[in-house]
Amino acid sequence: MIKNPPEKIETEKVFHIYAKNKCLYHNLDLEDFQEKWEMLNVMVGLLKTDYQVEDLDYTAVEETPTNGEESSY
After folding, report:
1. Which secondary structure element, helix H or strand E, spans residue 36, and what is its range?
2. pLDDT digits (tens, 9 = 90+) for 3-23
């Protein structure tokens, strides 16, 4: 069983991919996320790894536009 990524995702989001709660990829744009998510699901399904499809997860984080301004610390 392959977990499918969400079908409708807004482009202002970045994605983090996890396996067993360990971050494998962070700050991916939509295109990179979709590519790596599909690749990981196929790899876990076909190859003998320490991971199962159920171990894969992701989060989508909405970016806050800064208009080129830096935060003051």
Report:
1. helix 30-46
2. 676 665 444 899 999 999 999
Radius of gyration for the alpha carbons in the chain, expressed in angstroms and rounded: 15
Contact 71/18 with Cβ under 8 angstroms? Answer: no
Rounded Cα distance between 69 and 12, Å, is: 17
Separation between Cα atoms, residue 33 and residue 43, nearest integer Å: 15
Structure token pair of residue 38: 């599909």
Beta bridge partners of 13: 62
pTM tops 0.85, yes or no? no
* Count of CB atoms situated within 10 Å of the CB of 67: 4
The answer to whether 13 and 60 have CB atoms below 8 angstroms apart is yes
Question: What residue segments make up the domains of the chain, in order of their start?
Answer: 13-62
User: CA 18, CA 29: separation in Å to the nearest integer?
Assistant: 15
